TrEMBL record:
Transmembrane segments: none annotated. This is Malonyl CoA-acyl carrier protein transacylase. The gene is fabD. The keyword Acyltransferase applies. GO terms for molecular function: [acyl-carrier-protein] S-malonyltransferase activity. Residues 6-298 form the Malonyl-CoA:ACP transacylase (MAT) domain. Pfam families: Acyl_transf_1 (PF00698). It comes from uncultured Anaerotruncus sp. Keywords: Acyltransferase, Transferase.
Length: 306
């Protein structure tokens, strides 16, 4: 069975995630064991018995989500899945690149641990906040941001009905109020430690690019649709520079899904915690059928269909 893989980003984590995969699939257990060995962190402990507060820390969330995602992808491929394309939301793009062979799983753990550390530090240094705007067109949201004093911009184009804005807290609040006045159904402040995918992440992006400069990347073995444009990454792309830019640029998820559908990728599996990409996929296009895979039972069910 040919399928595209979708990978979630930070915010999808929850206590206990991946425990049943670890217990029921030896390959998943190997992935979790490798994560701890490579990073020196108790990924199993944080994922299986850690608190929501511990998992919410950027460096912990990113590493645990990446591990969960790659455990599922590894089991899927061993069970006969033929992967035709990949995409990921924010952090999930690292998972997609790893699934596409851009770097090894060992390198992936090192990269994601570094990414989470740098983003967590940038958030602590620069502050900022984010809010989800529902029921207003993206161009109207962009206009509300442009009309607000201070720094605020649209950063996550999640679905036609939901866009996330980020920046200075006062500017985010002011833009949110403008969005409500313009007809938005709701504006929901997000419980985040910083303004991700904004210029506040630029120091982290530059540091990541610099530290990845000596990393040996491999040619992609399948198309990876990137957050920056919603289109597949070009062959020979400077991945170190790309990954740095991706941290401080908007996530164009609506364009990503629409372009995948236009290119004929109509069957997909969301690999990792949560159901955000599955739900947003339905809102973006009814043509793409997305299987939600986060538990051992989810994985067994789809493997039985191959």
């Amino acid at each position: 069975m040919s399928i595209s893989l979708l990978f979630p980003g930070q915010g999808a984590q929850y206590p206990g995630m991946g425990k049943d995969l670890y217990e029921q699939f030896s390959l998943a257990k190997e992935v979790y064991t490798m994560a701890g060995d490579i990073t020196g962190k108790d990924v199993c402990g944080m994922s299986f018995t850690g608190t929501a507060e511990q998992l919410a820390q950027t460096e912990n969330a990113q590493l645990c989500i990446f591990t969960h995602s790659m455990a599922i992808a590894t089991v899927l491929r061993a069970g006969g899945a033929e992967v035709e394309a990949a995409a990921g939301f924010s952090l999930g793009e690292c998972s997609a690149l790893c699934a596409a062979g851009a770097f090894s799983l060992e390198q992936g753990f090192q990269l994601v641990a570094l990414r989470g550390q740098l983003m967590g530090q940038a958030a602590a240094d620069n502050g900022g906040t984010m809010a989800a705007v529902m029921g207003l067109a993206p161009d109207q949201i962009e206009a509300c941001c442009a009309e607000s004093d201070g720094y605020v911009e649209a950063v996550n184009y999640n679905s036609p009905a939901q866009t996330v804005i980020a920046g200075d807290p006062a500017a985010v609040q002011a833009a949110g109020e403008r969005c409500l006045a313009a007809g938005a159904s709701r504006v929901v402040p997000l419980a985040v430690s910083g303004a991700f995918h904004t210029r506040y992440m630029q120091p982290a992006g530059e540091a990541l690019t610099a530290q990845l400069a000596g990393m040996a990347f491999s040619p992609l073995q399948l198309p990876v649709y990137t957050n920056l444009t919603g289109r597949p990454l070009e062959s020979g792309c400077d991945l170190a520079a790309h990954l740095g830019r991706q941290m401080c640029s908007p996530v164009r998820w609506v364009d990503t899904v629409l372009n995948m559908v236009a290119d004929g990728h109509l069957k997909a599996a969301e690999c990792g915690p949560g159901k955000v990409l599955t739900g947003n996929g339905r809102r973006i296009s009814r043509e793409m059928k997305v299987h939600n895979l986060q538990t051992a039972d989810d994985v067994k069910k789809i493997l039985d269909s191959f």
